[in-house]
Amino acid sequence: MQLDIGEDIEGAVHPPSGFIRQHWRRLLPHWSTPVLSLLILLQRSPTSIDDYTAAAERSKQQLRDRAIHLLQPLTERVHQSDYRAILFDPQTGYPYQGTMPGIPLNDVAVIYDVLGYDLEQCGECYCLVHPHWGNQVYPAIVVCSAIPAVLEAIAIPYFSPTLDLQINPSQLQYRHC
Ligand code: B12
Question: From ligand 1's centre to the CA of 108, what distance in Å?
Answer without folding.
Answer: 7
